[in-house]
Design a protein that fits this description.
globular; Aldehyde Dehydrogenase, Chain A, domain 2; 14 helices; binds 2-aminohexanedioic acid; alpha/beta; about 40% helix; Aldehyde Dehydrogenase, Chain A, domain 1; five-stranded parallel beta sheet; about 500 residues; 2 domains
């Protein structure tokens, strides 16, 4: 508790206005209570949507580079608070401190990206078939963006969405995971600091309620998804949740950006640099205790190096430091909660029943945290991709399979319902190119000689099939947060019709 109050003091953050008895935040580190908070009601969420709509109507006419200034200041405030905020991410989500701070760095990176973008938001000029005519496209703000995020990246995913949505001229309503509400409120408090600094420079420009947080469970997400005043819902989480959100949003013909499950594979070929591959496998499979949507879950190793690779992973797994996420040297922190531990054990049982040979996976005692769930990462030798291998279990379980020829390995990589991330370790340029080609990996992310997790914000992030098809962060993902208008302008003195149609009156 003392640790928590020191962090709150450093962040200048006080959640007493939100105290209540609906959401109980506990640290996965030791099971200790962080805070008990009041959830918003459906009526309050509806009011928030109306307020956001009013904010949007003012914000959309502020020039985009000026909107960028707010995001620039937000990035500045985040830089000033990188360590305490990173520590709070660690305490509430359980990821190790270096990853907690890394997550805040990811927020800063997307703010920088969005500031640059605020002077771009380019449209095209298009050749017209008619003389004295010009065509162009213009990108306009979209409206209120609903952002639903998960516990495993409790703040960065909001930032990917909010930084872009804000420079694009939108208002944002954030529904964080009910497992990580405190760090969401802390981020909102930092946003308020940015607002205060911006308003000092430019009074009266910034509407109130431009960014809001609504706390609660599924009914809050459902209220956002159903509202015709929310043209875009960006949702990160399970396939089950995404299916519900997508259905509700589709019913009203709204737009959704979905970032759902991953079941990410890696192929290790005979020419692979094994020392790099082993580090990449370890970071991707056991980092964040296997709780990233990009975590490595399936490994396909060529039979000529299979025994060597698997034995080496086994040795690493036996020695990798599982422990307090705040301790330097810890690589594997706790699972988020008991439910997640039980889901892992059930998956391992099923894997055994389906012929898997399991090493690791057992609970590890850390400190006196009876209510904390630490595990040794599990390695499961499988002879085929049975039912359980097709399933994403949010825990450090790595299924290892042997392959004989390259095409089979690519087929195995693609044989699951999810399509987020994938990787190959090879020094054979033909294999590398084939893996990235049209007949290669079917995932949104296809990496060569790096792991499946830890993407930078400059690229578009997301995946295919049950992953949901959305793209966030870099490249041209910003277009999802805007509406496109095609403009045709006639500067001639006649009125020719397209396709040569004659219509003289
Ligand atoms: C997630 O797990 O929801 O590529 C996002 C990565 C991170 C983002 C993961 N940059 O692993």
């Amino acid at each position: 508790m003392t640790q928590i109050s020191t962090i709150f003091a450093e962040l200048g953050f006080d959640f007493s206005a939100h105290a209540g008895n609906d959401l109980h935040s506990r640290s996965p580190r030791d099971g200790a209570a962080i805070a008990s908070l009041r959830a918003h009601t459906v009526a309050e969420t509806e009011a928030a949507i109306k307020n956001a709509q009013q904010a949007y109507e003012k914000w959309r006419v502020v020039p985009a580079p000026v909107r960028g200034e707010l995001v620039r200041i937000l990035g500045e405030v985040l830089r000033e608070n990188r360590e305490p905020l990173g520590k709070l991410v660690t305490l509430e989500s359980g990821k190790i401190l270096s990853e907690g701070i890394g997550e805040v760095q990811e927020m800063i990176d997307i703010c920088d990206f969005a500031v640059g973008l605020s002077r771009q938001l380019y449209g095209l000029t298009i050749a017209s078939e008619r003389p004295g005519h010009r065509m162009m496209e213009t990108w306009h703000p979209l409206g209120v963006c609903g952002v639903i995020t998960a516990f495993n990246f409790p703040v960065a995913v909001w930032a990917w969405n909010a930084a872009l949505a804000l420079v694009c001229g939108n208002a944002v309503i954030w529904k964080p995971s009910e497992k990580t509400p405190v760090v969401a409120l802390a981020v909102h408090a930092l946003y308020e600091k940015a607002v205060a600094r911006f308003s000092q420079q430019r009074p009266d420009l910034l509407p109130s309620n431009l960014c809001q947080v609504v706390l609660g469970r599924a009914e809050i997400g459902a209220t956002l998804s159903a509202s015709p005043l929310v043209p875009l819902i960006s949702a990160t989480g399970s396939v089950r949740m995404g299916r519900k959100v997508a259905t509700t949003v589709a019913e009203r013909l709204g737009r959704s950006l979905l970032e759902l499950g991953g079941n990410n594979g890696m192929i290790v070929t005979p020419t692979a640099d094994l020392s790099l591959a082993l580090r990449a496998i370890t970071f991707s499979a056991v980092g964040t205790a296997g709780q990233r949507c990009t975590s490595l879950r399936r490994l396909f190793v060529h039979s000529s190096i299979y025994d060597d690779v698997v034995n080496r992973i086994e040795r690493i797994y036996a020695s990798v430091k599982v422990g307090d996420p705040l301790d330097a040297g810890t690589l594997v922190g706790p699972l988020v909660d008991q439910q997640s531990f039980e889901a892992m054990q059930t998956a391992l049982q099923q894997a055994k029943a389906e012929g898997g040979v399991v090493t690791g996976g057992e609970r590890v005692a850390v400190g006196d945290g009876e209510n904390a769930y630490y595990v040794r990462p599990a390695l499961v030798r499988m002879s085929q991709q049975s039912d359980i291998v097709h399933h994403e279990t949010f825990a450090p379980i790595l299924y290892v399979l042997r392959y004989e020829n390259f095409d089979d390995a690519v087929r195995m990589n693609n044989a699951v319902p999810q399509g987020l991330s994938s990787a190959i370790f090879t020094n054979d340029v033909r294999e590398a190119e084939a893996f990235m080609s049209a007949s290669g990996s079917d995932c949104g992310l296809a990496n060569v000689n790096i792991g499946t997790s830890g993407a930078e914000i400059g690229g578009a992030f997301g995946g295919e099939k049950e992953t949901g098809g959305g793209r966030e962060s870099g490249s041209d993902s910003w277009k999802t947060y805007m509406r496109r208008a095609t403009n045709t302008i006639n500067y001639s003195r006649t009125l020719p019709l397209a396709q040569g149609v004659k219509f003289d009156i």
